[in-house]
Specification:
The complex is a heterodimer of chains A (about 325) and B (about 300). Chain A is mainly alpha-helical. In chain A, about 75% of the residues lie in helices and about 0% in strands. Chain B is about 75% helix and about 0% strand. Classes of the chains: A mainly alpha (about 325), B mainly alpha (about 300).
């Protein structure tokens, strides 16, 4: 007995909608056979990618955990051995860790907040129809395409240098004495470059959000007498919320690992020693494998805490989007 | 800005005929605001773009003209600085970058296309788990994996090896590519896939003939973004390569030795280093936007 037979059996009676839906739904066992087949295919297709991801990123991390319990300095190869929690004690009592943690939070946090704010401003400006809109968009996304190493160097030497930097020339026109940005305000210098590079990224996501907003609703609001500020606060901003969350999440993933501008501009001086730079220093300058590994493990744990909160948020967006369509 | 007093959104009847003179003055004010906003937008845009423009301009100057406190605008321009950069062996580093970026992007696509397709096959059961796994590997700081990787490559004698670097870039970009492409594959209408199955097309013909053309823009977007990230990567490249396999970013990072004047030649090197990705990004701007924004949201 198959579903089509049943439907054919009572063609003219026009059964109740619920009943007809039940009849037209294919019998369960047959579909779940297909389901199993589809699932098996899906697994086969996904496995290679998972294996590579595990091999390249997860296994090394497990080894890092193992190293973090080892007393191991590359300068003293003979003295390697099990260290218990010694490395973690060193990390938490050393003082460098808390400083580095606050530097990471400060630099990452300020860069994200600033680039989202500027990104939102730019998105609002570029969402209007105006002369040269396409060209302006092209120019604005360029900082995001710039190689971070090149951006850091250009900012350090060409923009922010005390003698020949353009920013200082601009400030001198306002009567301000030249500032050696990367030694006087190292954290601010790093934040400036990061904000400059990430603003276009945030702008792209927020612009997509603005463009997905229904024009009719906005027009209706304006006809009903809502001013631009009012309709921005009460309609556009709530609509943009999930896009802002996504921008913050993706920006957070990338910025928590930030290394390039610090290595190039400040070398971790003046409150810019983020966790990844500290780990680099311990491992590749200090050759303290065990201690550096402990930093790595702690960094990952912290990231997991931040990320799981953020990811839950993302999946909420995800599932509500799915429900809508 | 409108001077109409903000009223709560309501369906109350409004006066139907505003007086003509008021309407005209309002329109003129509107046009003035619009022009002002356009000018403001352009000022912000150009200010934002200025560091890039100044880098390119400085690259054509002489060192003396580049290193002045008051910026030199009218000066002799030449390609000499670019020649100087290439004399320092910059071509090799660019080629290494190209090799690592292309190799890693191709491998990422070979792995991510089937995976993304698999994750979008209906019924989607437990696919969020796999997705969660992929995106969570991207959250892990590369720094947490670098020590064993470094020691392993050292043990195998594979430091300064462009293939090893490419494999690591695969690990770095794979989650992002799967994540982005999955959303494009989910957009393939179910009927098309089912029709292909009924036609007796086997899986690979189905993938290549039916699904691939539909998701091609998404794949292009993912490929572009993977290429950009690989091309611009600094951390792994600076630690794992030294001379033979050195890529552009770490070379650029060690370019300034602090002796003499270097601003013009540094600008020339930076211009050459960013040129491929900036041009690609400009030309494929739509793809980039789709890949980053749409792909991530849908």
């Amino acid at each position: 007995m198959t579903a089509p037979d049943l439907i054919v059996a009572e063609p003219a009676h026009d059964p109740a909608p619920a009943a007809s839906r039940a009849l037209r739904r294919p019998p369960k066992p047959e579909l779940s056979g297909g389901q199993i087949k589809a699932l098996r295919l899906a697994r086969t297709l996904v496995w290679p990618a998972i294996v590579v991801a595990v091999l390249v990123t997860q296994i090394p991390f497990l080894v890092t955990i193992y190293y973090s319990f080892q007393n191991w300095n590359l300068m003293r190869p003979g003295s390697r051995g099990f260290a218990g929690f010694d490395n973690y004690v060193t990390v938490f009592t050393g003082g460098a860790f808390m400083q580095s943690l606050s530097a990471t939070v400060f630099i990452t946090g300020s860069s994200i907040v600033l680039s989202v704010l500027f990104g939102l401003g730019l998105a609002l400006l570029l969402n209007r129809k105006f002369f040269g809109q396409g060209l302006a968009r092209t120019l604005v996304i360029t900082p995001f395409l710039m190689m971070p190493a090149a951006a850091a160097l250009i900012f350090k030497w060409s923009m922010l240098d005390a003698n020949v930097g353009m920013v200082n020339w601009g400030l001198s026109a306002l009567g301000v004495d030249p500032v050696q940005w990367n030694t006087d305000f190292p954290a601010l210098t790093v934040i400036m470059v990061l904000t400059w590079q990430y603003t276009p990224f945030m702008m792209l996501i927020l612009l997509a959000g603005l463009q997905s907003q229904s024009k009719e609703t906005l027009e209706a609001a304006s006809v009903d007498g809502a001013g631009p500020i009012r309709s921005f606060l009460h309609m556009t901003l709530p609509h943009l919320r999930q896009y802002i969350e996504l921008a913050v999440l993706l920006g957070g993933i990338m910025l928590l690992q930030v290394f390039d501008p610090i290595a190039i501009m400040t070398r971790g001086t003046g409150g810019t020693k983020t966790l990844s730079y500290l780990l680099y220093e311990r491992a590749f300058v200090g050759l303290e494998i065990g201690e550096a590994a402990a930093y790595g493990v702690i960094t990952v744990l912290l990231t997991i805490i931040v990320a799981s909160v953020a990811l839950r948020l993302l999946f909420k967006i995800f599932s509500s989007e799915g429900a809508k369509s | 800005m409108s001077t109409v007093t903000a009223a709560p959104v309501s369906t109350a009847p409004r006066p139907s005929t505003p007086t003509p003179p008021r309407r005209r003055s309002k329109r003129m004010r509107h046009r003035a605001t619009s022009t002002a906003l356009t000018i403001f937008t352009w000022i912000v845009t150009l200010g934002f773009f200025f560091p890039v423009a100044w880098m390119v301009f400085t690259a054509f100057k002489t060192e003396a003209a580049a290193a002045t406190r008051t910026p030199t605008i009218f000066t002799a321009l030449s390609l000499d600085r670019f020649a100087e950069v290439l004399d320092r062996g910059f071509g090799v580093y660019l080629l290494n970058s190209l090799t690592a970026s292309v190799m890693s992007t191709v491998i990422v696509l070979l792995l991510a296309i089937p995976a993304a397709y698999g994750l979008s096959i209906r019924p989607i059961i437990k696919s969020t788990d796999a997705l969660f796994f992929f995106i969570s590997t991207r959250f892990m700081p590369i720094a947490a994996a670098i020590i064993p990787i470094y020691l392993l490559l050292q043990g195998l004698g594979m430091l300064d090896n462009i293939t090893a670097l490419s494999v690591l870039y695969v690990g770095m970009n794979l989650p992002l590519a799967v994540w982005m492409m999955r959303s494009f594959f989910s957009e393939v209408p179910l009927e098309i896939v089912e029709a292909a199955q009924i036609d007796g097309a086997n899986f690979f013909t189905e993938l290549v003939r039916v699904v691939l053309p539909i998701v091609a823009p998404g794949i292009a977007a993912a490929a572009l973004i993977c290429f950009i990230f690989a091309w611009n990567e600094y951390f792994l490249a600076s630690l794992l390569t030294s001379t033979m396999a050195r890529t552009t970013p770490p070379f650029l990072g060690s370019f300034v030795d602090g002796r003499g004047q270097f601003l013009a030649v540094l600008s020339a090197a930076s211009t050459l280093a960013v040129l491929p990705v900036v041009l690609a990004g400009w030309l494929a701007q739509k793809r980039l936007v789709t890949g980053l924004a749409m792909g991530a949201i849908k």
